[in-house]
Structure formats: structure tokens, C-alpha cells
Amino acid sequence: MHVLPYVNEPYDTFTSPAAQEEMRAALAEVRSQFGQTYPAVIGGKRVQRDALIVSTNPSAPSEVVGKASRATREDAEAALDAAWKAFDSWKLWKQEDRSRVMLKAAAIMRRRKRELEAWLVYEIGKNWVEASAEVAEMIDFTEYYARQALRHVGGLGHLNAFPGEENQSFYIPLGAGLTIAPWNFPMALMTGMTVGAVVVGNTVVCKPAEDTVVAIAKMAEIFEEAGLPPGVINYLPGLGSEVGSYLVEHPRTRFINFTGSLATGKRINEAAAKVGEGQRWFKRVFLELGGKDAILVDETADLDAAALGVIQSAYGYQGQKCSACSRLVIVDSVYDRLIERVVERAKSLRVAAAETNPDMGPVCNLAQDAKVREYLGIGRSEGKLLVGGRRMDGDGFFFEPTVFGDVAPTARLAQEEVFGPVVAAIRVKNFDEGLAVVNNTVYGLTGALYSRDRARIELARREFHVGNLYFNRKCSGALAGVQPFGGFNLTGTDTKTGGPDYLLQFLQMKSVAERL
Ligand code: NAD
After folding, report:
1. Which residue in the list 322, 325, 364, 475 is annotated as catalytic?
2. Which of 68, 102, 125, 244 is most buried, taking the most CB atoms under 10 A from its CB?
3. Which of 291, 294, 293 has the alpha carbon at shortest distance from 262?
4. Whose CA is nearest to atom 12 of ligand 1?
5. Please, where are the H alpha helices in 259-417?
6. What pLDDT, in 10s, does the model give residues 68-93?
7. Measured CA angle at 348 (ends 447, 317), to 5 deg
């Protein structure tokens, strides 16, 4: 199979008038499709129930972007059946043929790029650039895993031979599993979690987050158009508490690939550990959970670069990234100077409806709105409000970019994931104290250090305990195939998405010896 080497898909910054024009046209086209109903797709069949999940536009919550059939337990059962049925033949496909379907899907995604971006703008309030970066990541995961899968054909090459025997070890897929995604990177994460499992021969039931039933309906459409056999990917829009937990506990679920909050991750991990009636395996569980990511800035740092990195990491997609900077840890001697620059930049950010391509759009939903409001209250009692702090008037879920200063490292605002545009600035005496502070949470996803001191950079390389560490750049925006992504501690099981070992997690090795 001859394929071009993997390269990251470029994303658009929409500086060219042509790109802007394309995006406006895509937004208009997508808007004209608002309000449609999307059935579940189970074994290739459309299944429509009376009960619906309604997905709205967070910039204008009275606008219905789309509705999806709200799956029942019977639908969940049927989806798992369909996945197992499809597994029987999909597992036998040649790896090249499975990879080829993924490459075809990536090509369709590329052709439908603007349209997919527009859905993200409307369904979850991403500005154009963030939407473009997500669709680029969706393509990256698909292209990267399609190629990586070819590496695993034939198993290991370096086992010893044994006299009088012919030995062979090879990988086989696990079976039918579950992929459950959050709403903040619906297309990229659901595609990555799904393609990773499916490309090596597994089949899945995809349970999207309730806010993103349209985005994932589009994803499912693309794989169908690419020629994936029915039942390999089953689209099951439903509630986490209904069909999600039902399938997590189900004795015929073989693996669970989950990305979401720590609270849900803990519940899933516990429930999946139980061996149910008739169950014949231990479920494999992959968890990618929350973060409380810190940027540490010492007195040798380039403060302008640090201020820019903080703004990009803290307020990109309104701080609703697992990798968002939510703790800014600054050495005392440069604290005031850096804060001044961060505050100045934060004030200049434009907050508006996502379709107008502002710096910041709305937070995603009513629950997010309530949560960010709550933490603004907590911040007022735990720190000094330096900028922002306000929920803007109107129906859309808009917040000002906010920084609270002099927050104690043990304060709630410094320990709990806010998942909104709120930064806790923490003052430390020196670099060593800063390093202790950044490591002092239950999470361990991303982090950054701004410093010009080589010895400190090397110390942080070893001791800053996060899955993705960055020096002198923002702490968000990992690229598939460049920075394998996944966190330590209660951030999860460190699956390292977009990394060379990711696919092995969805395989098991069979070792066969034949006496000659
Ligand atoms: P969430 O945990 O509320 O929901 C995630 C998914 O789980 C949804 O599809 C939901 O329907 C489903 N779900 C809820 N309860 C369930 C249950 N009992 N059983 C099975 N499924 C259930 O998270 P969210 O609010 O959608 O996403 C935000 C969170 O995701 C943040 O904590 C963020 O840090 C995290 N996240 C982590 C990463 C990462 O790579 N580590 C990436 C993106 C987001």
C-alpha cells in the first residue's frame, strides 16, 4: 500500500478574504439545516424514537441546531449486538483494507472541512480558528492511526526462535466496545477514540455528549460514506446516565474508551471493574479526564512571550479545554510585571457570538454557565479580582476573561477544574517553590515553564509531573503524531492519543507454537 508520509493537517487562521468568504457561506448553509432530526444509526439502520435530545446554539440558546433520537436501553442493546455481529467479519479484513477506509474518510472530512467547522461554531460556540483546529485534529487522528495500524500487522519481528518449533506472535482485536466523548472536542476526540479502536479490527458503539449529537451524527455520516460496513461504528445519541451507564455495566462490553470529567471517569472505572453475570473478560478501560494545568513563570523568563502563552492557553475556546491554563504560578520578583501584561491582553479580547469569529465565544451550555458563575463567586472570596469577573448580559453564555490574583495554592480555585475562562494567579518565592506548587494537585495533564535558565528547564523536564510538558510556549494545542497526549495521576490512564503506542491498547497478542 503506497501512502504519502503522515503530515499534520494545517488549520486556518482565516486571514485571507477567500477563507472568510468560504466560512460565511458554510455558516449560512449549515444554518439553513438547523432543526433537523438525526436518528440513531444501529447496524446501518436508522432508529428514531419519540423522545429527543435537543442541541442548541450556546451563543443564542433559543436556536435549535438539531435534535437527535434519545436512545433507549433497547437501542443500546441492539447497538451492542450490531457491533458484535459486525466484528465477526470486520476483524478478518486485511489491515490494508481497513486502513484504506479510514484514509477515504479523512479525504471526505477534508472535502467537508468548512461545513464541519461551521457545525462546531454553532453547536458548541467555537470561534472559526478553534473550529478549524479541531477539524484538522479530527483528520490528523484518522490519517495517523490509518498508517500506524499497518505497523502492527504480523506482530513482533524480534522474538527468538526455538529449536524444533515454529513460533509466531501476532495481534488480534478485542471485540465490541464503547466510545464515550465529551462535548468540548466532539469531532476530534470521538473520531480519534473510535478510529483508534476500529482501524485495528474492533467495532464500537459511539455515545456522544448530549450537547454534540449533531457533530457526531456528521462524523458517523462520513464513515458511512467512506464505505465502512454497517455495525462497525454505531451512532447512539443518548443520555450518559441512561444508555451510557447501561453499556458501561453491560457484560458484553469488551472495552470502554472514555474521555470526560473526573467524576464520571471514577464512576465508569468502578462500574467497569465489576464482572457481570455471564461476563467472560476483564473490561479494558481507558480514561482521559480533567486537568488543572499550570504555567510557571520565573524571573528569567521573556514576560511578553509568557503573557501571550497564558492568554492563548487560558482563554482559547473560553478555557474549556482539558489542557487550558487555569493556574498561573509566578515568581514574586516578576509577579506584578507579568500580571500587568496578562491583564492588559485579557482586556483587549473580544467576546461575542461564535459565528462572528471573536477571540472568545460563549461557554457551552447552561451547566457550564452555572459552574463558571459559581467559581467567579468562589474566586472573589479566595483571591483578588484583577480583570473580568462578569457574566455578560443576555441569553448567550458569555463571560469576561477573568484573573484572580494572590490565590493560595490550596484554595479551591487553585485545585478544582473550572473549565471556563478563569485563571488563578499564585505568587511564589522562587522557582523551587513554584515547582512544588505546580505538582500539588490530583491531576497531571499539561503544564508549561517559561524560563531562560537551562538548569531549571532540565529539572522541570524530570520533575514537573504532567503527561504533556511545554517550555516557553503555551500549554495547549498538542498535535497528533508530534506530541502524544494524555495525563498522569487522576487525569487518567495516560493513553497517549496521537502517539505510536496508542493502537496497541485495542489489541491483544496471541502467541502460537507448533512442534515441527
Ligand atoms: P462528562 O464526564 O460530564 O461527560 C462526558 C461523557 O460521559 C458524555 O458523553 C456523557 O453523556 C457521558 N456520561 C455521563 N455520565 C455517564 C455515566 N454514568 N456512564 C457513562 N457515560 C456517562 O464530561 P463533559 O462535561 O462532557 O466534558 C468535560 C470534561 O472532559 C472536563 O473535565 C475535561 O477536562 C475533560 N476532557 C478531558 C480530555 C483529556 O484528554 N484528558 C479531553 C477533553 C475533555
Report:
1. 322
2. 125
3. 291
4. 240
5. 262-273, 303-315, 332-347, 366-382, 412-415
6. 999 999 999 999 999 999 999 999 99
7. 45
